[in-house]
């Protein structure tokens, strides 16, 4: 079965610093989804990547999917306290059931 | 307007009790899911229903029984609750390859 490994598991950065979160899959990815979760809330969809080499940006967050479609990175530029939360990467299944398998999450704290 | 709503938000109960969590989506999606997030924040799928039909059951104990009266609703009933059932349960809906939409979660605490 497919597994997703996120690194680091937790991250504390000073406001204004850049950071990167990685997501590595044990198998080829059929769609890679990044979500953010704040405490006590649901998952908020950030970005979806499907093609090898694809890169997407939204405000100060950029996500990339490598050419081999087995690794993705999420980069935050000039982090702010509002970026704090848990970031989860999710992989679609080859059977196209819509089911997502998630990594264990990366907890981000941004110090003012 | 809330897209995926689940109730209750918090649920505290004793071991051995039976409880239900309700979920409704107004997005017109065909597929709904239940996920469980443990204390380490690991999110794992439990069930998936497509147009009221069960399509995924990830080796969840028989004490958990999902019910989908129509494609906009997916409820989760749990019998004989155990301490290990304490977690946050998320409902989600989706269609095709589009991103899943999640509810805000139900934090279940079994004492």
- Determine the structural class of chain B based on helices, strands and strand pairing: mainly beta
Biggest beta-sheet profile of chain B: 7 strands, mixed
H/I helix tally of chain A: 0
Into which percent range does the helicity of residues of chain B fall? under 10%
Report the average pLDDT across residues of chain A.
91
- Radius of gyration of chain A using CA atoms only: 13 Å
Secondary-structure element series of chain A: EEEEEEEEEEE
Topology order of chain B in helix (H) and strand (E) letters: EEEEEEEEEEE
Which regions of chain B are unreliable across 5 or more consecutive residues at pLDDT < 50?
Answer: none
Compute the separation of the termini of chain A in Å: 41 Å
Overall geometry of chain A comes to globular
Strand content of chain B: over 45%
Structure, explained:
The complex is a heterodimer of chains A (112) and B (111). Chain A is mainly beta. Chain A has no helices and eleven strands. The mean pLDDT of chain A is 91. With 111 residues, chain B is mostly beta strands. Helices cover 0% and strands 57% of the residues of chain B. Chain B has strands at residues 4-7, 10-13, 19-25, 31-37, 43-50, 53-57, 64-70, 73-78, 87-94, 101-102, 106-110. In chain B, the strands form two sheets. In chain B, strands 2, 4, 5, 6, 9, 10 and 11 form a seven-stranded mixed beta sheet that branches. The mean pLDDT of chain B is 92. Chains A and B meet through strand 4, strand 5, strand 9 and strand 10 of A and strand 5, strand 9 and strand 10 of B.
Structure in a nutshell:
The complex is a heterodimer of chains A (112) and B (111). Chain A is mostly beta strands and 112 residues long. Chain A has no helices and 11 strands.
List descriptors:
heterodimer, A: 112 residues, mainly beta, 6-stranded mixed sheet, 5-stranded antiparallel sheet, 11 strands, 0% helix, 54% strand, globular, B: 111 residues, 7-stranded mixed sheet, 4-stranded antiparallel sheet, 57% strand
């Amino acid at each position: 079965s497919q597994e997703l490994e996120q690194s680091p598991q937790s991250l504390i950065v000073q406001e204004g610093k850049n950071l990167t979160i990685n997501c590595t899959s044990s198998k080829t990815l059929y769609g890679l989804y990044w979500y953010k979760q704040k405490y006590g809330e649901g998952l908020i969809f950030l970005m979806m990547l499907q093609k090898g080499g694809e890169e997407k940006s939204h405000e100060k967050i950029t996500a990339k999917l490598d050419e081999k479609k087995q690794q993705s990175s999420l980069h935050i530029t000039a982090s702010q306290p509002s970026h704090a939360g848990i970031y989860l990467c999710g992989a679609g299944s080859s059977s196209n059931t819509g089911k997502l398998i998630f990594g264990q999450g990366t907890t981000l704290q941004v110090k003012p | 307007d809330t897209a995926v709503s689940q109730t209750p938000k918090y649920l505290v109960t004793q071991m051995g009790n039976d409880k239900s969590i309700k979920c409704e989506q107004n997005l017109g999606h065909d597929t709904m899911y239940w996920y469980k997030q443990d204390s380490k924040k690991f999110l794992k799928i439990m069930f998936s229903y497509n147009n009221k039909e069960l399509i995924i059951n990830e080796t969840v104990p028989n004490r958990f029984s999902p019910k989908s009266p129509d494609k906009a609703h997916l409820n989760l009933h749990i019998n004989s609750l155990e301490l290990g059932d304490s977690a946050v349960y998320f409902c989600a809906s989706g269609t095709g390859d589009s991103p899943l939409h999640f509810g805000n979660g139900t934090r279940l605490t079994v004492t």
